[in-house]
């Protein structure tokens, strides 16, 4: 049976009508003091009206489901509205990198009109799967910019990987960063120092130098800023995709991404 945890008040009200019993106020719950008027269901409602409503609902139980569906739709609309307001307040941090110590990496066309932010962790299996879906959705498009928010939440190896990636970006540029980013996500299995050393050296870089660069304050500040932004947005896992009007927690397949891209391209 489908439950509506947010509609607890509605459930209590319906139950009160069906049982033809008064519904106590919040302050009276658990109190031994009787209500001021025990012969009414609520102010302005007589026992006769309550009996009529009870009889109607028993004869037409589908009405209760209609009410719950309406409440569910209203709650979804309210939640979407709150999410849009939240994204609007953080628009600059998400899409413009306002005040960033080091800029986020970008895949695709940095000047693309369609912008999406991805929060990711290099050890996250769903992030690895999402990389292929993103590639498919972006294939043949020149209007998409994917802003990459390093969000290491799965332990020290994730932190090391993000620091190495940002160090490569700082020292060797955007293309080098995106290449290393893709190599990390393409790796199957857990990351460790040996694996990351091999990946760095395969890309032609000095692991020790990049490790030292990765400890610099600008990179530390960048990771802290990304974590704070995620917390402000209510993001606690990866991946998470943020569009100008929507936040999607969890993996998105290529079809869903393409629908979002097309909507934003209008």
From TrEMBL:
<dbReference type="InterPro" id="IPR036249">
    <property type="entry name" value="Thioredoxin-like_sf"/>
</dbReference>
<dbReference type="InterPro" id="IPR041205">
    <property type="entry name" value="ScsC_N"/>
</dbReference>
<feature type="domain" description="Copper resistance protein ScsC N-terminal">
    <location>
        <begin position="48"/>
        <end position="77"/>
    </location>
</feature>
<dbReference type="Pfam" id="PF01323">
    <property type="entry name" value="DSBA"/>
</dbReference>
<feature type="domain" description="DSBA-like thioredoxin">
    <location>
        <begin position="116"/>
        <end position="257"/>
    </location>
</feature>
<dbReference type="GO" id="GO:0016491">
    <property type="term" value="F:oxidoreductase activity"/>
</dbReference>
<dbReference type="Pfam" id="PF18312">
    <property type="entry name" value="ScsC_N"/>
</dbReference>
<protein>
    <submittedName>
        <fullName>Uncharacterized protein</fullName>
    </submittedName>
</protein>
<dbReference type="InterPro" id="IPR001853">
    <property type="entry name" value="DSBA-like_thioredoxin_dom"/>
</dbReference>
């Amino acid at each position: 049976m489908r439950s509506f945890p947010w509609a607890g008040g509605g459930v209590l009200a319906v139950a009160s009508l069906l049982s033809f019993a008064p519904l106590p106020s919040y302050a009276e719950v658990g109190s031994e003091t009787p209500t001021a008027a025990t012969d009414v269901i609520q102010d302005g409602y007589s026992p006769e009206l309550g009996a009529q409503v009870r009889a109607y609902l028993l004869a037409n139980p589908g009405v209760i489901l209609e009410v719950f569906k309406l409440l569910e739709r209203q709650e979804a609309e309210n939640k979407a509205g709150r999410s849009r307001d939240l994204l609007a307040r953080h628009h600059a941090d998400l899409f413009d990198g306002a005040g960033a110590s080091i800029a986020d990496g970008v895949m695709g066309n940095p000047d693309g009109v369609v912008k999406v932010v991805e929060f990711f962790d290099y050890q996250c299996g769903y992030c690895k799967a999402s990389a292929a879906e993103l590639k498919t959705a972006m294939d043949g498009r020149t209007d998409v910019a994917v802003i990459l928010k390093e969000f290491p939440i799965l332990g020290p190896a994730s932190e090391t990987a993000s620091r190495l990636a940002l160090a490569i970006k700082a020292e060797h540029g955007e293309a080098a960063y995106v290449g290393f980013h893709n190599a990390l996500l393409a790796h199957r299995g857990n990351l460790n120092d040996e694996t990351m050393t091999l990946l760095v050296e395969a890309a032609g870089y000095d692991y020790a130098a990049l490790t030292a660069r990765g400890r610099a304050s600008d990179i530390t500040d960048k990771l802290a800023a990304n974590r704070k932004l995620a917390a402000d947005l209510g993001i606690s896992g990866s991946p998470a995709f943020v569009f100008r009007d929507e936040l999607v927690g969890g993996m998105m397949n290529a079809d869903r991404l393409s629908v979002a891209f097309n909507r934003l391209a209008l």
